[in-house]
Write a structure and sequence with these properties.
This protein is α/β, with parallel strands linked by helices. The chain has 10 helices and 12 strands. The termini are far apart.
């Protein structure tokens, strides 16, 4: 496909908000601060956020990503990812004499607390989410005897509860709002006394980005979502764009993954990014599109975001000393330097 000129009237609609949410920003900064404060390596259980570029960048700085707690050497510092972990993981870390930093997104922590509270009141909890997703695994681990996973509307028919008058639904924070409410409606039809959580479980950033991509889809023939293939909220944005009327929508990690054939007959490209995507990747796509005649960029703003979260409290402690003390306690030797 040949290069296009700016005079052809082609344009880009750039979504706002897009990219990093407060929970992702907090988690990424937490890894950087830990490396700065304690030095490499800092172990991270699972990808800190679901973005290939972010993970690769942090690895170059000294972060080591592992899938199991037992992969972390005794006496090391381990950080829990933004997706959250089950209580058993905290127990594993304690057994392994590990100092921990919990970078779980506060909005995920809220869902965990809701699960514990409703389980304590002996409710059956219907957790709407995708099987195998780290956030679902973590939340389910808070109350495994009370939680049933509901993976979309088609799962509703097989759901059984002990007492239809004591049922509540919770959800993974990164789902499609529309599909989640479709699942909730089906659950309410089956269980009329179903209780809703005290506040939305789907995070503000996920909702805002889905609203923005719907707006893009009104005018864009093609929507490009920058995000990784294992990013739930990014995948949902592609689905939302298609449902909202875009002729085509694609997920890419980098500009180099864009197929020029996608641009055939396209005058307006919608561009957005998932909640774990840094701006540098979107800038790369804008440059790529500009080189092909899409130099006219219009920002489409649908919401303002001002939420920030404080860094994990553990970063205020001397974790290296804490880790050494844990090993010394086990071995009966004094920590080095004493």
């Amino acid at each position: 496909m040949g290069r296009m000129t700016a005079s052809t009237g082609r344009r880009v609609l750039l979504a706002a908000p897009r990219g990093y949410c407060a929970g992702v920003d907090r988690a990424v900064i937490a890894v950087e601060k830990a490396l700065e404060q304690y030095g490499a390596p800092i172990y991270v259980r699972h990808e800190i956020v679901h973005n290939k570029y972010v993970v690769q960048t942090l690895e170059k700085k000294g972060a080591i990503f592992v899938e199991r707690t037992e992969e972390v050497p005794e006496g090391s510092i381990v950080m829990f990812s933004a997706h959250g972990v089950a209580p058993v993981v905290h127990d594993e870390a304690a057994a392994g004499r590990l100092a921990t930093i919990d970078a779980t997104c506060p909005l995920v922590t809220k869902v965990h607390k809701e699960a514990v509270r409703f389980a304590g009141d002996d409710f059956d909890i219907l957790l709407i989410g995708h099987e195998g997703h780290e956030e679902v695994i973590g939340t389910s681990g808070e109350a495994p005897d009370h939680i049933t996973l509901v993976d979309g509307p088609d799962d509703v028919a097989k759901v059984e509860v002990r007492d239809p008058s004591k049922v509540v639904w919770l959800s993974q924070t990164t789902l499609s709002v529309d599909e989640t409410m479709e699942t909730v409606d089906a659950l309410k039809e089956k269980f009329p006394q179903l209780i809703s959580p005290p506040s939305d479980d789907i995070c503000y950033a996920t909702q805002n980005r889905q609203i923005a991509v719907k707006k893009l889809a009104e005018d864009a023939q093609l929507v490009i979502v920058v995000g990784s293939k294992n990013s739930s909220n990014s995948i949902r944005m592609v689905e939302v764009a298609l449902d909202a009327g875009a002729s085509a929508a694609h997920l890419v990690d980098f500009a180099a993954e864009i197929d020029e054939a996608w641009l055939e007959g396209v005058t307006t490209v919608g561009l957005t990014s998932g909640a774990s995507v840094p701006d540098v990747l979107v800038d790369g796509v804008l440059e790529w599109l500009a080189e092909r005649g899409y130099g006219d960029v219009e920002t489409v703003k649908t919401a303002e975001e001002s939420i920030t979260f404080s860094l994990p409290k553990e970063l205020r402690r001397d974790l290296r000393a804490e880790a050494a003390a844990l090993v010394a306690e086990r071995t009966g030797t004094a920590p080095s330097g004493e």
